[in-house]
Amino acid sequence: MSRADPALVVGDLAAALDTIADHNSGRPMPLISDAHVHALHGQRLAPVADQPPILVPRGESAKSWATLAAIVDELALRAIPRGTPLLALGGGSVGDIAALAASLFKRGTPVIHIPTTLLAQTDSAVGGKTGLNSAGTKNIAGTFHPPALVVADPALLDTLDRRQLVAGYAEVVKYGLIDDPAFFAWCEAHGRALIDGDRSARTHAVRHCLAAKARLVRGDERDLGGTRTLLNLGHSFGHAIESAAGLGRLLHGEAVAVGLTLALRFSAFLRLCPPANADRLAVHLAAVGLPTRLDEVGLKGADLGRWMAHDKKNSASVRTLVLAHGIGRAFVARAVDEAALVAFLAAA
Ligand SMILES: NC(=O)c1ccc[n+]([C@@H]2O[C@H](COP(=O)([O-])OP(=O)(O)OC[C@H]3O[C@@H](n4cnc5c(N)ncnc54)[C@H](O)[C@@H]3O)[C@@H](O)[C@H]2O)c1
Ligand SMILES: [Zn+2]
Question: How far is the CA of 60 from the centre of ligand 1 (A)?
Fold first, then answer.
């Protein structure tokens, strides 16, 4: 199995404990989590985890140099042998900082992700990107460190608050928009049930999205402009929306929901995509409670211009955006017409 194609287990965590234990020949492993998630779900890993856990701050604030240093120091104090997998139990923030620590500790030790948010179960646990924030910039430092194993148990989502769940759902819809119109139609039929707690809908979505992400990452592990770029659909707009709103005010997925809609509306503006496809997307996102328009998140198109200029996916002079010919037909548009983008944003 290639490093970018880790073992992906979707289902009951208790049933996967033996698989996890095998990764360290039955010996317990350091467990990294935040206090909230650990209080809710930490016991489930007791048979395979060292005590006590290594706890990091909740949410985005975990992704700091201070937390990275604290994890590495603690591993050193515990004399953890090289090659011992770290267990990362939590959302994307815990996963990103734990995997970064794993990639650096003794020049690299494995990480096993046990993701606990919809975003982490459908997206961040696979693909190997690790990172932290510094000087107010998200993910400014990081490594590529694919996990040895991912165990995503949809039952762990039952304790997640609705706002987090709905935000994570925007990334689920993204996979349908990229290259899978049948999955988009599945989302339209089952998205509400998924959000309302339907376990089989959640399991189907997690399994489908993790496989889709692994497929898109394969062959472009280091994000060098291949299929992985398509995962950025809605994110150039989305990151600008997050920054313009003030980091932390909107959840990432909320900004992505508006960003996905803008990506399709801009595609329609350029006559690349039928406007009805953009409308269909907006109707579905709104039906599950996600924002689709800038005014819903207190912004105007003109607010985004400055932030879109900062988008790290762009080289000095040429703007690259992921656009779509329709639902399930995303493509990478290189050399996007700047004047058209400015005109579109002015009217958005
Ligand atoms: N590495 C990647 O490829 C990648 C991809 C997408 C996003 N990310 C990163 O992921 C981060 C966002 O992750 P996130 O959306 O999972 O949120 P998060 O990890 O920041 O967690 C959000 C909150 O949810 C709580 N929580 C987590 N699981 C819970 C559960 N089961 N029950 C109750 N509460 C729970 C946490 O305690 C925290 O307060 C961002 O930093 C983003 O950059 C990384
Ligand atoms: Zn995202």
Answer: 8
CA atoms within 13 A on the CB side of 264: 25
The closest-lying atom of ligand 1 relative to the alpha carbon of residue 60 is: 20
Q: What is the mean pLDDT of residues 279-294?
A: 98
Q: What fold is seen in the domain 7-159?
A: Rossmann fold (3.40.50)
Residue from 124, 162, 222, 235 whose mutation best tests the ligand 1 pocket (most atoms within 8 A of CB): 124
- Point out the ligand 1 atom lying closest to the alpha carbon of residue 94: 19
What distance in Å separates the CA atoms of residue 249 and residue 79, rounded to the nearest whole number?
40
Choice from 116, 199, 232 to test ligand 1 binding pocket (greatest atom count within 8 A of CB): 116
Homologous superfamily (CATH) of 162-347 is Dehydroquinate synthase-like - alpha domain (1.20.1090.10)
CATH 1.20.1090.10 residue ranges in the chain? Answer: 162-347
What is the average pLDDT value for the chain, to the nearest integer?
A: 94
Model pTM above 0.85: yes
Q: What is the mean pLDDT of residues 83-103?
A: 98
CB of 36 sitting under 6 A from ligand 1: yes
**In whole angstroms, what separates CA 121 from the centre of its chain?**
8
Minimal-distance CA residue to ligand 1 atom 35: 160
pLDDT per residue as tens digits for the range 122-170: 999 999 999 999 987 889 999 999 999 999 999 999 999 999 999 999 9
Q: How far is CA 41 from the centre of its chain?
A: 21
- What are the C-alpha distances in Å from 215 to residues 115, 206, 236, 335, 340? 19, 14, 22, 26, 33
For the chain, the farthest-separated pair of C-alpha atoms sits apart, in whole angstroms, at 60
Q: What is the pLDDT of residues 235-263, one digit of tens each?
A: 999 999 998 998 789 999 999 999 999 99
Which atom of ligand 1 is closest in space to residue 63's alpha carbon? 41
